[in-house]
Amino acid sequence: MEDDAKKAIVAVGIVLSTTLNQAQAVVAIAGAADTPTTMAAQAATLLRADPIIMSWLTVSVLGPVVWLTSLLAGPPITVQANVGNGGTVQMEIGRRKRHFQVVIWARTPDDRNTVADPVEALIASLEANFGLTFPDGTMGRLTFSGDTQHDEATLSDTFRRDLLTCVDYGITVTDQTYAVLAPIVNNTTF
């Protein structure tokens, strides 16, 4: 059970501050193969890469533990660490309407109805059930715009029916997010 809980942690945020106006933060993000030990090493590397943090303290790592030692003689350093799980957020950035024309050609008016009626029923069903579900999980609203039948005499004696539809759908972007679940160290000073 504890191993499953450790695997669920995908981000660790560490915020260090000396005063209310001066704070520095790093966020270590786990990959699929990361363990608590590799996450501690990654957090230490990020802390060491920040020159302001390194002027405040020294950083060392022993297994899954990050050790912080203050270099300041003045105000205490406040440490806040949070762990979070990952997820994705999908945001709609625009909408589009696309018009489609389904054309049915047949030899007789009866053949035309035999083919067109099930297509029209499918369009009505999609319209009644809000529309289409796209691979990214978003939905597009399908509406029936109208239809026309062409019974003009032509050399080939064909009969035509046009079914006009419109799909209104969103254009989306997806971004990786990290939600803070629980503080593991909060306002500890040293």
Task: Give a brief description.
The protein has 190 residues and is α+β, with helices and mostly antiparallel strands. The protein contains four helices and eight strands.
Could you outline the blueprint of secondary structure elements for this entry?
Elements: H1 2-8, E1 11-19, E2 22-29, H2 36-49, H3 51-56, E3 57-62, E4 65-70, E5 78-106, H4 109-128, E6 131-133, E7 139-150, E8 159-189
Antiparallel strand pairs: 1-2, 1-5, 3-4, 5-8, 6-7, 7-8
Write structural notes for this entry.
The protein is an alpha+beta fold and 190 residues long. It is built from 4 helices and 8 strands; from the N terminus they run αββααβββαβββ. The strands form 2 sheets. It has a 6-stranded antiparallel β-sheet with strand order 2-1-5-8-7-6, with helices on one face. A hairpin with a 5-residue loop joins β6 and β7. It is rod-shaped, with a radius of gyration of 31 Å. The two termini are 33 Å apart. Mean pLDDT is 84; it is low at 1-7.
